[in-house]
Amino acid sequence: MDVDITKELCLQKLQGIGILHVATVDEDGRPQVRCVSAIHYEPDAIYFYTARGKSFARQLEASGWVQMEGMTKYKEMIRLSGKVKKADDQQKWKDKVFEEQPYLINVYPGNTREIGVIYEIRNATIEWFWLGTHPIERRYFTTGNAQWKPKGYQISDECIACGTCETVCPEGAIDEGEPFVIRQNNCLQCGNCFEHCPVEAIIKL
Q1: Rounded to 10 degrees, what is the CA torsion of 153, 158, 162, 166?
Q2: 3-class DSSP assignment, residue 180
Q3: How far apart are CA 44 and CA 124, in angstroms?
Q4: Do 166 and 185 touch, CB atoms closer than 8 A?
Q5: Which residues contact residue 119 at a Cβ distance below 8 angstroms, ignoring those fewer than 6 apart?
Q6: Distance of CA 111 to the CA centre of its chain
Q7: pTM above 0.85, yes or no
Q8: Nearest CA to 76 among 143, 124, 5, 145?
Q9: Residue (of 7, 136, 146, 29) closest to 79 by Cα position
Q10: Which domains does the chain have, with CATH numbers?
């Protein structure tokens, strides 16, 4: 299936979702997730606002990493992971976020908005994962100088071409060959082939 999806379109879809789940890690190594809508999108970066005194800001400062995720009504999951830093020209981006998200004026009336800080994500990986079709569709993109680390499974040359993996794949995403081949764009990454291979020819990436 030829899917016309780009990183620019992924960012547009995230903007359309509006409220994203944003994950960080606290000082004890525990995951922390909150919903964030105070976000402004540019073609090459994302800017978002939070108050300096919040644990969210402290976690961003401590780790320098953040992950954002949302799902469209068509069951397209979009996940963005990247390095975060305080944005240059704080006032410009603060004004832009408050202009686009007018509810913030009630949350931070008048000059109280100055307690906030704008963070920027410019170097990021983006994963688009469409669960609303069969087989599923998956694509990966990067922004800035970010690099993508492969995930999922791969069939090695130890494959004996028995066809077990093809039989147990819920998406029908494995093609016959020597060795058999996993179509990565359709792989659910569930690991069923990995668990059933009789000669352990499938490796985790």
Answers
A1: 10
A2: coil
A3: 10
A4: no
A5: 47, 48, 49, 50, 60, 66, 84, 85, 86, 87
A6: 34
A7: yes
A8: 5
A9: 7
A10: 7-143 (2.30.110.10), 153-204 (3.30.70.20)
